[in-house]
Every structure is written in C-alpha cells, then in structure tokens.
C-alpha cells in the first residue's frame, strides 16, 4: 500500500490494522475470522480518527456524543450542588421549627392575641396605654382626696378641740361649769358696818383685776353663790348679804382661782380692800391654796336682746 492511500484514508488499512468490512453499514463482517459483534464490549473506546481523514459528509453524519447520566451524576459540580441544597434545607427546617415553637408558646399564652392581626395588636396596645394613664390619674385623684380628707379631718378635730376648750372657758366664766385650780381662800369678818356689800364688791373687783378666773362666796350657814360678771351684792337685814337673790350671813368666805401671789398683792395694796375693811373695824385674811374648788353653778342667763354678730 502506497503512502498516498495511507494519508487519504480511503479504505486501505494501516499496517497492523484489520481490513475494514466491505459490506454496507449494519451488515456482518464477511471475513471468516472476524470477531462476533456481540462479544465486543460496548464501552470499549474506539480509536480516534484524525479530522483530516474524515470526509465532510461523514462529519455531518456522525452525531455529537451526549454525556452519559452516570458520568454526570458522579461529577464534583453535582456533588457541590447537592451539599448546598442540603444546607439550605437544614436551615429552612431549623427556622420552621423555631417558628412553630414560638407560635406554640404564644398560642398557649393567649390564643386571642396569637390569632389577631398586626393592626389589632397595635390598637390593643394603644388601648392598654390609655387605660393605664386613666388609672394613674384616678390613683392621683384618690390620693389627693385622701390627703384632703385627712387634712380636713385634722382641721375639724382641731376646730372641735378649740371649740370645746373655748366652751369650757366660757362655761367657767358664765358660772355654768365647775372649776378647780390653785388660788386663794379669802375670809371677811367683823361688824356689819365693816363688812358691807360695798366692801365685798370692792374685793371682787380687785380679784378680777388680778386675774381671778372663777369665784364663789359662802356664808356662815353654808349658803353659796357663784360670782360671775352679772352678780350683784345687796346689804340685807341684820348684817346679812344678798348675792343674786340669795341671803348669806357672815362671816363670808370667797374661794377664788387664779395666781395666789398676784391676787394677794392686789388685796393688800395701800388703801385697798384690806386697809378699808380694817379701818372700818373688820378683818380680811387670805390663805394660799394649791387646789381650790369652785363647784357652785349659776343658772344660764337668758338673753332677751343681745344676739351674736354673724
């Protein structure tokens, strides 16, 4: 075989190659020593043929080889795609599980809120804030009312105590209440000319000026009269003394509540009560007492014309 036949590949076999079958494609090889086509391995690769040895018509007739499924499935790119997809599926499953747990807890806590929409939750939150503000305002108002009530109660209690104290003072001055306290016991003795209603009235006036707060006068027979601002003194028969309509016989004793030293000084001033009674032949003695009881009461005075100023 010449060099020209080997280069053109027109059917002449190369050295060492078996001769090509001369029959049409698909027919068995007519050679007696040709191998059985069924015994040939289908996966045995065919020996490559140079491009220049293939005619153009044969190039068009030869179909492009498609990748085998087995080879594609085992490639490294496919393995990488499978690993990425597995990681994404694992992340999605984890998120799904977390969402289910959160939803379960929320639903078990308050199924109504769990089923509510976002705008409903916003409205509920706003309503709760408004209710909290209203409740805080009510608490402040109630606390202020409590403070006012306490202040008013304390004020009323203080006013009541002051009114009670004032009423007691007025009752003592009016002679409608008994009184007790430190003071003097003043005794008048002597003839009727020395111990007259005028002398007794001067003594009462001196004691009042010295701060006497409560007084009563008692006769020898035990008759007692409370001395108040409206008390009057009149000379009675046989040296008796009429005090607010009550007849008292001498000697007379005045029980007076006040500062003992001040009242004693007032009685002993020069030209005062003690000097006047002594000049007329009578006698006035005073004795300090730690406790003086003025127990005689005066009937309340009914006012016919005077009214309190409103």
Can you walk through the features of this model?
With 310 residues, the protein is an alpha+beta fold. Helices cover 45% and strands 15% of the residues. The protein has 9 helices and 8 strands. A 5-stranded antiparallel β-sheet has the order 3-2-7-1-8. A hairpin with a 2-residue loop joins strand 5 and strand 6. The longest helix has 57 residues, at 118-174. The chain starts with a helix and ends in a 16-residue tail after the last strand.
| Secondary-structure-derived class | alpha+beta
- Described by the principal axes of the CA atoms, the overall outline is rod-shaped
- The order of strands across the largest sheet is 3-2-7-1-8
Helix content: 40-55%
Give the low-confidence spans: 1-11, 21-26, 39-46, 48-74
Helical element count?
9
Q: What is the element string, with H for helices and E for strands?
A: HHHHHHEHEEEEEEHHE
Query: What is the CA-atom radius of gyration, in angstroms?
Result: 70 Å
The largest β sheet comes out as: 5 strands, antiparallel
- What is the first-to-last residue Cα distance? 159 Å
Mean model confidence by pLDDT: 76
Strand content: 15-25%
- The oligomeric status of these chains comes to single chain
């Amino acid at each position: 075989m010449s060099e020209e036949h080997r280069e053109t590949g027109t059917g002449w076999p190369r050295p060492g190659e078996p001769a090509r079958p001369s029959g049409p494609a698909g027919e068995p090889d007519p050679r007696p020593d040709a191998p059985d086509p069924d015994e040939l391995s289908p996966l045995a690769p065919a020996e490559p043929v140079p491009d220049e040895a293939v005619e153009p018509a044969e190039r068009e007739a030869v179909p492009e080889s498609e990748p085998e499924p087995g080879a594609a499935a085992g490639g490294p790119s496919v393995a990488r795609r499978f690993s990425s997809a597995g990681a994404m599926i694992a992340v999605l499953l984890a998120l799904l599980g977390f969402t289910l747990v959160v939803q379960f807890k929320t639903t078990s806590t308050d199924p109504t809120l769990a089923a509510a929409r976002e705008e409903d939750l916003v409205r509920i939150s706003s309503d709760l804030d408004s209710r909290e503000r209203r409740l805080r305002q009510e608490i402040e108002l109630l606390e202020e009312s409590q403070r006012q009530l306490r202040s008013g109660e304390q004020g009323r209690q203080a006013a009541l105590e002051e009114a009670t104290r004032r009423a007691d003072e007025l009752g003592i001055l009016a002679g409608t209440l008994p009184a007790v306290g430190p003071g003097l016991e003043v005794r008048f003795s002597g003839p009727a000319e020395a111990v007259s209603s005028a002398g007794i009235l001067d003594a009462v006036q001196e004691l009042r000026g010295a701060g006497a707060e409560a007084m009563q006068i008692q006769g020898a027979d035990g008759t007692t009269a409370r001395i108040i601002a409206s008390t009057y003194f009149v000379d009675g028969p046989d040296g008796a003394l009429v005090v607010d309509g009550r007849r008292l016989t001498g000697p007379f004793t005045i029980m007076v509540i006040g500062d003992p030293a001040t009242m004693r000084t007032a009685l002993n001033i020069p030209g005062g009560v003690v000097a006047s009674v002594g000049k007329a032949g009578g006698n006035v003695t005073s004795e300090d007492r730690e406790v003086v009881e003025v127990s005689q009461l005066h009937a309340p005075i009914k006012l016919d014309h005077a009214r309190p100023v409103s």
